[in-house]
Amino acid sequence: MSLNTEFEVLVNTVTALLDKKNKLYSNILQSSKVSAEITDYDNWNGGIDIYTITVSLDIYLYSEIEDKLEEYEKSILDEFSFLIRDDENNVFSNLVIKPNMQNSINWGAIDVSIMKSDLIKLIDNIKSLMISVATNGPKIQTVNDEYKNIYYKLSDIFKSLIIENPNPYDDLWKWYGKWSAGDLTSYQSRRIFINDMYSNMLNVINSSPDRQGTSHPYEPTGWERVDRSVTELRKRINEATNEEQFQTIGLLSRESIISLAQEVYKPDIHKGLDTIEPSKTDANRMLEAFIANELGGGKNELLRRNVKSTLALANYLTHKRTATKNDASLCLISVMSLINTIKIVSKEEVIYF
């Protein structure tokens, strides 16, 4: 049979057979773009075309089966091979399930400090190093460590995003082996090769909206629990899509303010404005006492108002059943601003914006 003309029929047949045996395998094929290409040739018995089947799967389904990938690949390949067992001129030697390139970036899956511009810059840097060493630039040994650092940082990001790394060269010497093998004889051909390698990925990144709700600057304070809570807030707001998740930003904001108050309030030093001893969760009284003893005059009153308004905003968001992304973003910005301000007042370190 001619696989070029009948492969789609073959895929449909395998899908139908698997539906009777294992619906998960059938779902994999139904949810994928399935293709086959000749990856080898044997001239025995009139010639044998040897094919590799590629199953490009939705990334979310891919993430669910990743731990059993080899098992699924072998089982599905066996079905394809069985159907053409009498074909002496065509053989399926391999089947690869890979995640389909997504058309947007799930920023919530990676470090909250990485913005769209940061990811593009990393890719531009690694492209620049690859092109420069291959076009009479610096010697490989002088920049290889820098290259590998960028390569593995990008690899970690791609892994978190469940995106296949388009660059197989984790070392510049391996890249040297590719361009010196004879296929890329000109500087121009090497530049084109590198640009093409990252082209699809850069198109996806450039067409994806940047992170929302996290553009307000935040410099880690060094207060571990406070910084950890802000990191969690920034992660959650990028993942939030419904009212309940937006409300959770308010709840976590209150906890962040409590952690902040516990960090700076010293009961033997900071005396409150009334005779009531603050409880361990009374962020308003703890911060009021801290501010009153650290600042004086008009600044004191303005900052205390800031504390009250930020807490009020967090409480409002927590109980607002129609909470929106904008509500959550405003709350997060207010909390980060308050933390930065209290850090400045503590005189331990100035926060630069």
Primary descriptors:
single chain; 353 residues; mainly alpha; GMP Synthetase, Chain A, domain 3; Four Helix Bundle (Hemerythrin (Met), subunit A); three-stranded mixed β-sheet; 13 helices; 9% strand; disordered C terminus
How would you describe the overall organization of this protein?
The protein has 353 residues and is mostly helical. It is 60% helix and 9% strand. Strand 1 and strand 2 form a beta hairpin. Helix 1 packs across helix 4 and helix 5 packs antiparallel against helix 6. The longest helix has 23 residues, at 297-319. It starts with a helix and ends in an 8-residue tail after the last helix.
Strand order of the largest sheet: 1-2-3
- Outline the biggest β-sheet: 3 strands, mixed
User: Architecture of the largest domain in CATH?
Assistant: Up-down Bundle
- Uncertain stretches of 5 or more adjacent residues: 348-353
What share of residues are in beta strands?
5-15%
Level-1 CATH class name of the largest domain = Mainly Alpha
H-E string: HHEEHHEHHHHHHHHH
Count of runs of 4 or more consecutive helical residues:
13
Q: List the domain count as a whole number.
A: 3
Helix content class: 55-70%
**Structural class, from helix and strand content?**
mainly alpha
Residue-averaged pLDDT: 83
What gyration radius follows from the Cα positions, in whole Å? 29 Å
- Here the CATH topology of the largest domain equals Four Helix Bundle (Hemerythrin (Met), subunit A)
Shape: elongated
**N- to C-terminal separation?**
67 Å
Strand count: 3
